[in-house]
């Protein structure tokens, strides 16, 4: 579904770092482990089209996404930021999920019904009337995932999804992701948390100095 | 070239910004003032290429403001008319350019401060008799700007990744969308400010009524000459206006 081919990427502000990936095709559930500044988040952002390769290409279903607008990529690929509060913009959870649907022309009532169903699916019905900015980190994260799921992406990138979550919350997250995977979604997890990616049964790869190592971690 | 004392730059930016406000109609004077500020910034090795690169969107807004202003100032020769009504005149065009140049004088002038470390700017403000708390707040405020810009960019990316092609939205929807995006940035900014204030209190900020500083700025003879030049130029400029 997603394929990296001879991808090179350099930040304009950091000439010391270069990400080089010859060939990478994440399938099912894939996890990228590695130390800080090894290029994990950069890889995730390239997969979601937030960053574009300096050379080479990222293909989605055989099509180079270089010319795609971010909005078009978002209809196929979901992305969870390392800090979920950075991707929550509406003051109410229902609005957070329904707004993109309304912006795409869905009638308000229908969008809100769908949003409510999604909140229930993610066990967030108790926060319907809360203000998003006052939610706990775990709630914000589940809300961010629910909001990303509304577009029914077929590929989901999660950047450090377990940061700040306690063990029970991690288990809930793993359960949610496994269900999503069972529904046919492919998942790319960027993490430091080996225990979590093992629970997920992910194909674990290791990154070091901007290179994806060949051997399985 | 050794950088002048930051207080010299404060005097320069204060003088040029004041003149940018005082020049009301004379386009040649405003163009001259802009050229002067630009030359000073170039001499002080402000990365102007980078600055204008970052300001691409703002330059578009400036152009829009200039055009809008030109439509509302009918004087001089009519360049564009519809149904007998003058839409664009030479006077209006000149006024639009003047407004854009005025804003550029402020922006390029302020960019000169970026060549100094924050500590030097705080010290300059303190030695100009500004209370330390205010000087420190100003420096923190400046430090927050890129962070808030990043948060705004992240919100915009997150929204697009939910399948929204912003360019396809109608203007009304687009405006309401941007108002949504501002909210988390403002809330985030307030939260950061609160946390930072608590952290400063924990480290006994303002525990003593006055502060001493090992680092202090001294005006060199070159700085004094520059200050005199700025003062003379400001007085001469006042007479010309």
Account of the 3D structure:
The complex is a heterodimer of chains A (217) and B (241). By secondary structure, chain A is an alpha/beta fold. Chain A has two domains: 2-76 and 153-216, P-loop containing nucleotide triphosphate hydrolases (Rossmann fold, 3-Layer(aba) Sandwich), CATH 3.40.50; 91-152, no CATH class. Helix content of chain A is 33%, strand content 29%. In chain A, the strands form two sheets. In chain A, strands 6-7-8-3-9-10 form a six-stranded mixed β-sheet, sandwiched between helices. A four-stranded antiparallel β-sheet of chain A has the order 2-1-4-5, covered by helices on one side. In chain A, helix 3 packs across helix 4 (108-121), helix 3 packs parallel to helix 5 and helix 4 crosses helix 5. The longest helix of chain A is centred in the last third of the chain and has 16 residues, at 167-182. Chain A starts with a strand and ends with a strand. The mean pLDDT of chain A is 89. In chain B, 22% of the residues are buried. In chain B, helix 1 (6-22) runs antiparallel to helix 5, helix 4 runs antiparallel to helix 5 and helix 6 (118-127) packs antiparallel against helix 7. Chain B is mainly alpha-helical. In chain B, strands 1-2 form a two-stranded antiparallel sheet. The mean pLDDT of chain B is 86. Chain B folds into two domains: 1-116 and 218-241, no CATH class; 120-210, no CATH class. The interface between A and B is medium-sized, with 29 and 25 residues.
Please describe the topology of this protein:
The complex is a heterodimer of chains A (217) and B (241).
Chain A: E1 2-11, E2 14-24, E3 29-34, H1 40-47, E4 55-60, E5 63-64, H2 70-73, E6 77-80, H3 93-103, H4 108-121, H5 137-149, E7 155-159, H6 167-182, E8 186-191, H7 194-199, E9 203-208, E10 211-216
Parallel strand pairs in A: 3-8, 3-9, 6-7, 7-8
Antiparallel strand pairs in A: 1-2, 1-4, 4-5, 9-10
Helix pairs in contact in A: 3-4, 3-5, 4-5
Chain B: H1 6-22, H2 27-43, H3 48-54, H4 56-71, E1 78-82, E2 85-89, H5 90-111, H6 118-127, H7 132-160, H8 171-202, H9 221-240
Antiparallel strand pairs in B: 1-2
């Amino acid at each position: 579904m997603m394929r990296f081919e001879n991808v090179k990427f350099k930040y304009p502000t950091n000439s010391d770092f270069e990400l080089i990936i010859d060939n990478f095709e994440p399938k099912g559930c894939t996890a990228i482990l590695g130390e800080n500044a090894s290029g994990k988040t950069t890889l995730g952002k390239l997969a979601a089209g937030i960053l574009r390769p300096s050379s080479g290409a990222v293909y989605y279903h055989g099509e180079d996404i270089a010319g795609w607008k971010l909005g078009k990529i978002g209809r196929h690929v979901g992305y969870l930021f390392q800090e979920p509060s950075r991707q929550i913009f509406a003051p109410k959870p229902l609005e957070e999920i329904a707004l993109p649907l309304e912006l795409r022309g869905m009638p308000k009532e229908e969008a809100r019904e769908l949003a409510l169903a999604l909140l229930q699916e993610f066990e967030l019905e108790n926060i319907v009337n809360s203000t998003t900015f006052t939610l706990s980190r775990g709630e914000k994260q589940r809300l961010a995932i629910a909001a990303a799921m509304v577009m029914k992406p077929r590929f989901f990138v999660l950047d450090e999804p377990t940061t700040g979550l306690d063990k029970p919350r991690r288990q809930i997250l793993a359960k949610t992701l496994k269900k999503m995977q069972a529904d046919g979604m492919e998942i790319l997890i960027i993490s430091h948390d080996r225990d979590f990616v093992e629970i997920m049964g992910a194909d674990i790869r290791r990154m070091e100095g901007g290179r994806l190592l060949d051997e399985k971690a | 070239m050794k950088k002048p004392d930051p207080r010299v730059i404060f005097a320069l930016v204060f003088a040029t910004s004041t003149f940018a406000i005082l020049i009301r109609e004379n386009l040649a004077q405003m163009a001259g003032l802009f050229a002067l500020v630009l030359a000073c910034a170039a001499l002080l090795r402000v990365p102007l290429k980078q600055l204008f690169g970052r300001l691409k969107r703002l330059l578009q807004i400036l152009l829009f403001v200039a055009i809008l202003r030109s439509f509302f100032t009918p004087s001089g020769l009519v360049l564009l008319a519809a149904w007998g009504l003058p839409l664009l005149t030479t006077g209006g065009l000149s006024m639009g350019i003047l407004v854009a140049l005025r804003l550029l004088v402020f922006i390029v002038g302020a960019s000169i401060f970026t060549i100094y470390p924050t500590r030097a700017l705080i010290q300059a403000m303190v030695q100009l008799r500004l209370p330390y708390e205010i000087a420190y707040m100003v420096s923190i405020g400046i430090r927050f700007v890129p962070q808030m810009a990043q948060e705004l960019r992240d919100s915009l990316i997150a929204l697009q990744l939910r399948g929204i092609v912003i360019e396809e939205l109608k203007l009304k929807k687009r405006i309401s969308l941007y108002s949504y995006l501002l909210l988390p940035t403002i809330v985030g900014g307030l939260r950061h400010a609160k946390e930072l204030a608590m952290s400063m209190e924990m480290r006994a900020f303002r525990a003593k009524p006055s502060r001493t500083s090992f680092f202090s700025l001294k005006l060199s003879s070159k700085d004094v000459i520059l200050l005199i030049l700025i003062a003379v130029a400001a007085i001469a400029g006042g007479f010309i206006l």
